[in-house]
Amino acid sequence: MRNRHGSAAATAYAAVVAAAAAASMPSAVRGGWIDPDTPEEFRTTKSLLDGSEYRLVMSDEFETPGRTFADGHDPTWTALDKSDDDYSASGGGSLHFYNSSSVTTKNGYLQISTTLEETKWNQYDDIKEEWKPQMKHFKSGMVQSWEKFCFTGGIVEVDIVLPGDPYIGGLWPAIWLLGNIGRATYEASTNNIWPWSYDECDRSLQRKQSISACDEANHYGMNPRQGRGATEIDILEGMMGDPEGQYLPSTDPPVALPYADMTLQVAPGVPENRPMSGFQPMRNDSLTPDGHTELMAQTWYEGLEVEGNTTLNPFFYGTYLGETKPEEPVTRTKEEAFQADAVGAMHQLTPAHFKKNHKFRLEWRPGRGGRLDWYAQSHANSQGKDGYLMGDGKGEDWVKAYTLKDESLANLMGSKIPQEPSYLIFNIAISSTWGFPNSIPDWCEKCYDCSNSTCACAFHPGFCNMMKGGVKMLIDSVRVYQKDNAAGDGTGGQNQTVGCDPLEFPTREYIKGHGYRYMRHPPFSYEDDGPLKYEIDVGGGECESDVDCGGTSTRPVAPKASTGGGAKEERRTSLSEERGKCVPSDFVTGLFRRGSVLPTYACECYHGYTGPNCLAHAHFDESVSAYALRRSTDLGASFTLPRVTPFMVASAIALAVLLIGALVMHIIRDRNERMGAMMSATVGRRGSGGNRGSNGEAGGVMMVSGGFAT
């Protein structure tokens, strides 16, 4: 039975908490996330859906070359240093190791590289209780804004050049959003959290959704009776391959490789009578010639809208997250297994998308009554096919590709358009389950090492040759726009916010309470104090001259290293203002960390810049944090008197009697001791001075068995 009042209760609860901070909360909550390099003409945009104006709340133009994104280097982004341990219940796995050195900025782009490079480490096997050597043959990059910049709703616009060869399959480039309560590639944080977008109490689903609307008292700062999850919105996932350019079966209108997948991943999913992979959903019963039902209509979402050179995706309808195997990094019982749906479309790409910039846009109106609209800058198909294509052929026109409305979700499974605070993710993956040959000969050894000739049959022809020189995904800019009071503008959806820990959907206290789920596995976790370095390095990077610290002076202040100076020269000529200087490390504030080894010369950042080499703008989050607010108000607001029972009353009375009796006895003893001391002193004085009474007996007072007599 579903409880449709959970969301209202959670909202009311959040409103009570919000009232405590109303006096200090700005009317429009926004963080200081705008890149000063963003031109004025892009500080606002108009919705392609209704023409309403949105203003910029976050941007990164990536104009500064040489930026680094390792943990603690950048206030907006973190590049991962870990294996992508994506082991599904069906046994698939990723083939790459994410290394932060694969992410940098150059020539005005964020550059994510994927190369042939082995990474070796030892990993502990909990089943066999032993350390085992591990190795990945590909090195790649993922950068994410988790726990730094998050937003709920608005317009996201990314200008990119896709990596690799459009007709060689095997790469998996992606631009996507994930709810902040889950961290991408950290499977313990997403287990039974991803990709739930469900805020109703259904007892049959309660064990499948870790944070359920059936929970009367959610802990770790969660709102009671509010269903939560790490919802996923894929702005695009690139699928390449097929140099023949043949149209794919069951695509309508016809679409060929390469294409961009535009998808909402959502749970709960359709449990039965699902569409068959490789076929469009069958909307009506199939009848025999004599009128009997041969095949029943399949259950799938109604009202999905595709336009132009876009088709519903018939090849992937979702993932069944079944009971886990012992060797998997998470545990999920049979009762916790569930179906997740991929409600997606395929948009035609062309070779031009891999050679020059193209923008992709998502317009996200969150929550009940909301919708998702995907747009792309369109090109005519370079192969001259007869498919239905839109756009001016130059890749400069915005073309609507796909629309998913909240009613499509609500009417079928009761799920909703995501309303979770979400963060941005850019990455290139390599997975045997994405763009690799669907089948390989029985004689082919299933291995994925380009240096081993026996593995060649497991790759698409030309893949290893393409990878010898490495591939790069280039991102020219990312911009996020929002509209104030969006819930009341009549266009649908709820209000749009900035922040990873909003009052209505808190996450930070939950993350702190489950920190181990968001951390790397040993041995990499031995280097970590927590999931993330919340304090960003401000200077401290090794330098030879000011140019290494975002300065313009090339005068060396330290002995020159043997490295080339191309990157430094580019940095010197491209920066418009001083960001830092190179000084002896003793002068650099805040560098003396216990156990650290400091360079002889280090960067010192000027105000407004951060990072080891002062190359990042010092962005900050101005949004109200539920965790910070709770810490400041809980001491007074959460204090309540304990329930008093008759036994507690009797015990309190008995304890009071004992305390009073002990106090009386103490007073009597103290008085006796003082009086005895006085008598002793008097007797001593008389004995020494010869003072006697008329009868010759000692005068004064004498002690009689604890009392007094004269």
UniProtKB/TrEMBL annotation:
Subcellular location: Membrane
GO cellular component: endoplasmic reticulum membrane; plasma membrane
InterPro entries per the UniProt record, alphabetical: Beta-glucanase-like, ConA-like_dom_sf, EGF, Skn1/Kre6/Sbg1
Gene Ontology BP terms: (1->6)-beta-D-glucan biosynthetic process; cell wall organization
Extent of the signal sequence: 1-31
A GO term, aspect molecular function: glucosidase activity
TM regions (residue ranges): 647-668
Keywords from the UniProt entry: Cell wall biogenesis/degradation, Disulfide bond, Glycoprotein, Membrane, Signal, Signal-anchor, Transmembrane, Transmembrane helix
UniProt entry tagged with the keyword Glycoprotein: yes
Family: Belongs to the SKN1/KRE6 family.
Protein name (Swiss-Prot/TrEMBL): GH16 domain-containing protein
